[in-house]
Every structure is written in C-alpha cells, then in structure tokens.
Amino acid sequence: MEIAAGFHTSTTHAGGQSIPSNLFAMDWFFNPWKAVEFSGVFYSGQNVAHLGSGTRQGFAIYNNYAEA
C-alpha cells in the first residue's frame, strides 16, 4: 500500500490585488493480490495554473471603463 500527499499555498500579487493560491493532492496505490491493483488520485485547489498542472485556472483583470 502506498499513499502520497502534496500541499501548496501562496499568494499571487497582480493589478494591485492579492489572489490566494492553495492546493491539496493525494494519490494512492493498493495491490492486495499479485493480479489486482487499485490506484487513484484526489485533487482540490484554486489558482494553481502557475504550477504547470494543466488546469487552465488563473485570473483576469478587466477594465470596467465605459466610453461616453
């Protein structure tokens, strides 16, 4: 039986704003018999695109300027 966990926390500063980033990940492997294997992964987080995780998350800054 194998279990691995990962944690990340930081803050991105952009456009005068602070945007929190956090991540929790866990993966497991269980081999009760020679011919049977179980494996899986759990992931939870926000604003983690800068980690290269392939999660197309992030932030955008919009200008609410309207022309008169």
Textual characterization of the structure:
The chain is built from no helices and three strands. Helices cover 0% and strands 60% of the residues. Strands 1-2-3 form a three-stranded antiparallel β-sheet, with no helix packed on it. The protein has 68 residues and is mainly β. The mean pLDDT is 78. The protein has strands at 2-14, 17-33, 36-46. The chain has a domain at 2-48.
Provide key terms for this protein.
single chain, 68 residues, mainly beta, 3-stranded antiparallel beta sheet, 3 strands, 60% strand, elongated
Brief rundown of the structure:
It is elongated, with a radius of gyration of 19 Å.
Strand content: over 45%
Largest sheet: 3 strands, antiparallel
Straight-line N-to-C gap: 65 Å
Shape: elongated
Let me know the average pLDDT: 78
Proportion of residues in helical segments? under 10%
Compute the CA-based radius of gyration. 19 Å
Q: Strand order of the main beta sheet, please?
A: 1-2-3
Give the tally of β-strands. 3
Spell the H/E element sequence: EEE
Class of secondary structure makeup: mainly beta
Enumerate how many helices there are, as a single number: 0
- Point out poorly predicted stretches: none
Oligomer: single chain
Question: What's the topology here?
Answer:
Elements: E1 2-14, E2 17-33, E3 36-46
Antiparallel strand pairs: 1-2, 2-3
